[in-house]
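Input sequence (466 aa), recorded before submission:
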Amino acid sequence: MNNAMESSPGITYRAGTLEYTKKGLVLLFFWLLWGDFCYNLTMSVLNLLPLKIKHLGASNLVLGLLASTIPSIMNLIVTPVVSFRSDRYRSRWGRRIPFLLVSLPMAFFLILIGLSDGIGGCLHKLINGWLGMSPNTIILLFLGIMVVFFQFFHMIFGSVYYYLFNDVVPEKYLARFMALFQIAGSAAILTYNTFLLRYAETYMNEIFWGIGILCFIALTLMCWKVKEGDYPPPQENIQKKRGVLAACHTYFKECFTHKFYWYFFIANTSYMVSFCIGAFSMLFYLSLGISLKQYGYIMGGTYAISILLLYPAGILSDRYHSVQVMMWAMLLSIPLSAPQLVFLFYDFSPHTTLLIVIGLSVLSLPPVIIIKAAQFPMYMKLLPKDRFGQFASADAMIRSFSTLLGGILVGLLMDFLKDLHHGGDFYYRYIWVWMLFFQGIAAFFTVLVYKQWKKLGGNDNYIAPN
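Predicted structure, token format:
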């Protein structure tokens, strides 16, 4: 069992008031990782939405609104509110699981997305006499409404799901758990791409409602089997006031008035912005003469290596505090990625280019894997545990705004470089300049986070600033 128990010689792992035997910890990991596997299947199937929407004859504007704009706006509103309320919620089932249960209708709306063709067709027969719309228009309207409702409940789930780990997983195993968590997510994506995607054209609707049913069963079981412990009384708003304005004042004052958190937010945001140019990475390799087949093998190989090395990287992050591991990985990533700039100055034969690309891909991979393993455990160890959701959502809000702006700037920059080089595809080789610039900023502010962490108590006595 993975719920709180009376202390006994068999209890060897603790997370707050929760105590686990070795078997209890294994069961906890199983249910959380099983939930993650099914959740990632759900997120993978959403990649079929653009195909489904285009089949109905929708414009790119409609596609963009449903796939990107509306979810982004909802994320900026729902995530901070749900995170703030979840931190301060208390019930017999805990503070996270009630929100996860409330979000389970997302599985119901995923099922309805899969049934949208049939339901939309029936609605067309019922209301066509007084609306005069085509069957595809009715189906598209119904589908759009279902997608919006799905995204709303998904935002609730996604806002709270990751916070649960910080409350129930023993701190000394956080990085290893997060490594397994990412491996489980990768396994789900691999399962989807290998066994389900090939049937997307002929069995798209069945894939939607089938995964919707699996999602509901899996996440309900996870919420039932995973137990939260007891929490201290919730933090009151500043000046002990109540209401929306008092909550907003508390949120922004607590999150954005201490330099430590600004260093933390800027470091994470800069690292994320460095990947805004990632959409051009395939074009970069093609500009070097790498074929799509070769590119696929290189990406597949690095992905396989990443999966193999994630758990050892998690052990490293658990053994040496994640903020230290993160800092050294950030600093190491700069010199190991900088050789990619060689293609700005030299051209090589196709065979030599392929060997250099493979070598540089492998060379730059270790710090990326370590950062991936250490980043979220670093969040859990540095942000206030009683208000983890609040501070994590503040970080996410800044990253959302910054990556949105970064995406626009990347497009403008690439157009400028294209004109500068009078067309062609040489300008794609500048993507590493962008990445190294923002990763350099991320490394600088990660060092500042590390120094502040040391001043605030370091590995033995750190207390998150209020």
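Checked by second reader. Residues 1-7 have pLDDT under 50 and may be disordered.
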